[in-house]
Amino acid sequence: MNIRPARVGDVPAIYELIRTFAERRLMIRRSMGELYESIREFLVAIDDDGRVVGCVALHVFWEDLAELRCLAVDESLQGRGVGRWLVDACWESAQELQIGTVFTLTHAAGFFERCGYRQVEKSELPHKIWNECVRCPLFPNCQEIALVRTLDPERFSVNGTTESVVVGA
Ligand SMILES: CC(C)(COP(=O)(O)OP(=O)(O)OC[C@H]1O[C@@H](n2cnc3c(N)ncnc32)[C@H](O)[C@@H]1OP(=O)(O)O)[C@@H](O)C(=O)NCCC(=O)NCCS
After folding, report:
1. Which of these, 9, 33, 66, 112, could form a disulfide with 117 (CB 3.0-4.6 Å)?
2. CATH number of the CATH domain containing 90
3. What is the mean pLDDT of residues 73-98?
């Protein structure tokens, strides 16, 4: 198993991975066009046969804020640490870009907590991020939970229980 930056030839496999879970409403569906346009954002997990078995993307929003999105692991390989490996690799990518805060919106909050993320109120994320959400059929009643990993512990309140801190722009 190996994790590497995605290549255009990986797009059909990434598309299929995401489609499988999007049909179960666990993820937002992405078109092939969107995937080609954002291919530089993706990391993929490759098995020993060269097959794409996992993916994740890091989408930069602002000078110190990025979103971890499009995380998926082939069902047959779940529970073996591939998801955590992708999440960690994504955090390393953010560090290389000198981005100190990564957030995600997900139904798999427990998994992200195991990976060092903590829950925050969605309202603590900057409005800029909702541009994509408004295109989703579930907006504004989606059940996704916001989690962050940050180098700045003062940046977000814990579970939104203390005074809110406005971030980004
Ligand atoms: C969520 C997902 C990426 C996890 O990947 P995975 O490879 O199965 O996860 P890992 O094996 O790396 O698990 C890491 C830890 O999280 C735990 N975990 C995994 N899925 C979990 C979940 N849904 N809820 C709570 N904990 C979970 C594991 O037990 C493991 O715990 P440990 O610290 O005791 O070892 C995978 O289940 C998936 O692709 N789901 C469908 C798509 C999806 O929901 N994507 C999420 C974001 S949009």
Report:
1. 112
2. 3.40.630.30
3. 98
